[in-house]
Write a structure and sequence with these properties.
Layout: H1 2-6, E1 13-14, E2 42-43, E3 49-50, H2 72-78, H3 81-98, E4 102-103, H4 131-148, E5 154-160, E6 175-178, H5 181-186, H6 190-196, E7 209-212, E8 216-219, H7 236-243, H8 249-252, E9 256-259, H9 265-271, H10 280-290, H11 306-326, H12 328-348, H13 354-358, H14 366-380, E10 382-385, H15 388-394, E11 405-409, E12 413-414, E13 423-424, H16 430-439, E14 452-456, H17 457-469, H18 475-486, E15 489-494, H19 507-514, E16 523-528, H20 537-541, E17 545-548, H21 554-564, H22 585-588, E18 599-602, H23 604-608, E19 620-625, E20 641-648, E21 653-654, E22 658-661, E23 668-672, E24 677-685, E25 693-698, E26 705-710, E27 743-747, H24 759-781, H25 788-810, H26 824-846
Parallel strand pairs: 3-4, 4-5, 5-7, 6-8, 7-9, 11-14, 11-15, 15-16, 16-17, 26-27
Antiparallel strand pairs: 1-2, 10-17, 12-13, 18-19, 19-23, 20-21, 20-22, 20-24, 24-25, 25-26
């Protein structure tokens, strides 16, 4: 776009019928240096794109005057798609007000592999390490972006097909990953599939385009493990294979592909491993012919020379123009991309007019965006170590007024370009200022300015080195040494550990390893402003508390201050693995075995569209679980397997179990009621989570009697976890039955026929029946049985018969006999009493008493 502006070719003639529903022709831009635009001609606007990923430098291009956006991982740590929607809406509204009509985002990479030993991964630009949740957050963000901008900003999701498995820096070389296409669909491609699949009612969550990655290549991509692709964003075969998948083919009709930055060092080294040449025209041509519709010419020269980069851009544009005229295949490829681009611009603007495009909305109230960012920061706050209960013992209260706090920050000096003025990406003293503003003399008065001090990581490393070698200390280091010796609280603000790009970033690790004596009798608090996996288990164990914030903007620094003074709880959970505290994401996202799953019947009317007329033999009902929660207290990802058990206790008959997967955190199955009797329906998961039992009792043509039996409560074993967010008790789906049906709820008993809470009553009546029956036998036969041993055998035999029948009744073995519908205690007493009299009846008929019980 810049090169076109320099040549004054930024406007292209458009046929008048373009906006009248006519077919799109093969458009050709004019080649004259100063085109003449007729007064009645329509003009095509430029696409103005920007990267605004959040977390400030270096991933937010516009850092002044707009909302300080949280990182994607901070949003992911809240586990609330509503936050992704709100932040996307803010971004859309602000960019539309500036006239920016294309966002190079959001990032949909799945950070599947954490690499603390090799920095340079996606880091906090990713929503997290689970493909389902990354897709959910991406959809919500894109929907917010479109609605906040009133459809005036395109979303270009990146980095297709996913950089989460990459193990190389963009400054090193193109990464090689051994994965098949099917494996990619399970992890890397899943979030992109979710944002290219339109909803039946609303397509506002569908991405307008995807940025392809030139930084990753695959071995065994299409089955042959010996076949190696080119960088996927530059490989026509590989990219075509992906776009031809049924998950992407419908979207691709109008969906844009944007190349990744083509001047990255890894791309240059792929074309010339020695790094001596940069075939800029060939690289751009390969990107276009691979299938990219828009070519991102960034850092487009070997040297960081802006004039040279612009010259390369202009040469590439002229080269494209010449090939367009001379090669039909190239012309067809350009025309296909141009058609998609024009259609995308037509979605942005009702008509291509200067007046309409100049009529921009007003910037939204900055306070709204600031409040949203603050809410994300507080909900993302994660206590990594220790547990909440142990933390209360370690830190019973906030810093006291007379206690000295020393804040040590990983402050780095950076610049946007070689000629740009330097600045600090994390300003020195930022947390100290937040503490004093909130709790200092002008705040709550809990601390004094003299007791809040700060220093940089560079100073700490220099002090440790000087102390080890006996080198004389400078005045500033001597002052830092005094603060360290006097401090009651040591607070560290850490980012990534990158010895190449930031040599002082490992200051905390050096401190923990070399100077444990400086931590003695001090409270050591660490806030991770980046991904929280750069400390190992030994290092974490030396800390008093370890928090993750995932971002370094003002809202997150204020949240750190509030957490330090115990004003905000830590409700966030890591959206990725944290090996140091044995936090494994895939295990945390399994159904929580300590949470009961409720199940209920969905009305047939909800399925058939007719009023329910009751559940009888021959009916088909749908059973659905309540929302199943994972170990972090969030709905489990779609696709979580749930097994339904169908059991007829009277017949000891279990039907084949049904395994289904969750959608929206719930699972359901349809059951055909083919017989009379009592059917028990329950659900379970592979992680050990169980459900209430739904009992459907049917007799002949009578309406079903439906009951829900709850298992006895038990105290689950404690597990190490981040502080859970309070969650509402899951509400079971409403059971809809005929008016005659009764719905009861009682705790589950060990026995199918015995409800908990009534066991004592039934036992008392049963014993009463047995004793009564035995007394009747003894009274009737007392004169005929004078021998005490024989009378004792008669008593024992009576009790044995009574107990056997009583137990059979509890286990439901007598349900098929067709017993009267008497109250259960009365029926238990009657059966036990009659059974106790059977030995006496046998004695009367046989004329003797058996000598051995049971003979």
């Amino acid at each position: 776009a810049l090169a076109l502006e320099r040549r004054e070719d930024s406007l292209i003639d458009v046929p008048p019928n373009l906006n009248e529903g006519g077919d799109l022709p093969a458009f050709r831009s004019t080649a004259s240096p100063a085109p003449v635009i007729p007064a009645d001609a329509q003009t095509i606007p430029l696409l103005i794109g920007v990267q605004q990923d959040g977390d400030g430098y270096p991933y937010s291009a516009i850092r002044a005057g707009l909302t300080q956006l949280p990182s994607a991982m901070a949003i992911g740590a809240t586990w609330k798609p509503d936050h992704a929607y709100a932040i996307g809406r803010t971004v859309g509204a602000e960019l539309a007000a500036l006239g920016v009509n294309m966002l190079l985002g959001p990032d949909l990479d799945v950070l599947q592999r954490t690499r603390p030993e090799a920095p340079g991964d996606i880091g906090v630009r990713s929503f997290g390490g689970d493909p389902f949740w990354v897709g959910q957050m991406g959809r919500a963000y894109i929907q917010g972006l479109h609605e906040g901008s009133a459809g005036m900003v395109l979303a270009i999701s990146k980095h297709f097909p996913g950089l989460g498995s990459s193990d190389r820096r963009a400054s090193e070389e193109v990464a090689t990953v051994q994965k098949s296409l099917q494996e990619l669909k399970q992890i890397e491609l899943a979030p992109f599939i979710s944002v290219t699949s339109p909803d039946l009612e609303d397509d506002s969550a569908v991405t307008d385009g995807m940025m392809t990655s030139p930084l990753i290549r695959y071995r065994g991509f299409q089955g042959n493990i010996r076949q190696l692709t080119r960088p996927i964003g530059l490989d026509s075969d590989g990219l075509s294979a992906l776009m031809n998948l049924p998950e992407f083919a419908p979207w691709r009709v109008n969906g844009l592909l944007v190349s990744g930055p083509l001047g990255l060092p890894a791309v240059r080294r792929f074309y010339d491993p020695q790094g001596r040449t940069f075939p800029h025209k060939r690289i751009a041509q390969d990107a276009l012919m691979a299938g990219n519709d828009l070519i991102y010419l960034c850092d487009f020269a070997i040297e960081a020379d802006w004039e040279l980069q612009v010259a390369n851009m202009e040469e590439t544009i002229i080269f494209f123009m010449e090939k367009y005229e001379s090669e039909p295949s190239f012309r067809a490829r350009v025309d296909a991309s141009l058609e998609r681009i024009i259609r995308a611009k037509m979605r942005l603007y009702p008509e291509f007019s200067r007046e309409l495009m100049a009529d921009l909305p007003e910037l939204p109230d900055p306070a709204v965006g600031a409040a949203q960012a603050m809410q994300v920061a507080q909900d993302a706050l994660t206590l990594i170590y220790p547990g909440a209960e142990e933390l209360a013992d370690r830190l019973p209260g906030p810093p006291l007024r007379d206690e000295l706090m020393l804040v040590l920050s990983d402050t780095r000096t950076v610049s946007d370009c070689s000629a740009c003025p330097p600045f600090e990406s994390l300003p020195a003293g930022a947390l100290e200022k937040a503490i004093l503003r909130l709790y200092g003399p002008n705040g709550s008065g809990q601390v004094t300015a003299a007791n809040v001090r700060g220093a940089r990581f560079a100073d700490l490393k220099e002090l440790i080195a000087a102390d080890a070698t006996g080198k004389a200390l400078t005045p500033s280091l001597a002052q830092l040494n005094v603060w360290l010796q006097a401090a009651d609280w040591l607070v560290f603000l850490v980012r990534d550990v990158d010895a190449t790009e930031a040599p002082d970033s490992d200051a905390l690790k050096v401190f923990l390893k070399q100077r444990p004596d400086w931590m003695r009798n001090r409270k050591v608090i660490v806030f991770a402003l980046n991904v929280p996996y750069y400390l190992d288990t030994t290092e974490v164990s030396k800390l008093t508390a370890y928090y993750a914030l995932y971002s370094k903007t003002d809202a997150f620094l204020e949240t750190a201050a509030r957490a330090l003074f115990r004003e905000v709880p830590a409700y966030g959970s890591p959206p990725l693995d944290v090996e140091a505290v044995n936090y494994e994401l895939i295990a945390r996202l399994e159904p929580d075995p300590s949470r009961l799953i409720h199940i209920g019947i969905v009305a047939p009317a909800e399925i058939e569209g007719a009023q329910s007329v009751g559940v009888k033999v021959g009916s088909t009902v749908t059973v659905r679980t309540s929302t199943i929660l994972d170990r972090n207290g969030n709905p489990v990802p779609d696709g979580t397997p749930v097994q339904f058990r169908l059991y007829y206790p009277a017949e000891s008959l279990e039907l084949p179990r049904r395994t289904v997967t969750t959608v929206g955190g719930e699972a359901e199955t349809s059951i055909a009621l083919e017989r009379s009797g009592q059917l028990e329906v329950s659900a379970s998961t592979n992680s050990g989570a169980t459900s209430s039992t739904l009992v459907i009792s049917i007799k002949g043509d009578e309406p079903a009697v439906i009951a829900t039996i709850l298992p006895p409560t038990s105290t689950p074993a404690p597990t190490a976890t981040a502080t859970p967010r309070p969650t509402e008790t899951p509400v079971p789906p409403e059971a809809v039955v005929s008016p005659e049906a009764s719905v009861t709820a009682e705790p589950r008993s060990r026995f199918p026929g015995l409800g908990a809470g009534s066991g004592g009553l039934l036992l008392a009546w049963g014993l009463a029946g047995m004793v009564g029956g035995d007394l009747l036998v003894n009274l009737a036969l007392g004169r005929r049985v004078r021998s005490r041993p024989r009378r004792a055998r008669l008593v024992l035999l009576s009790l044995a018969f009574g107990l056997a029948v009583y137990t059979a009744y509890l286990l439901g073995w007598l349900d098929a006999v067709g017993l009267p519908a008497w109250p259960r205690p009365l029926m238990a007493a009657m059966l036990a009493g009659v059974a106790a009299m059977v030995p006496g009846i046998g004695f009367v008929k046989g004329g003797s008493v058996p000598r051995r019980v049971g003979s």
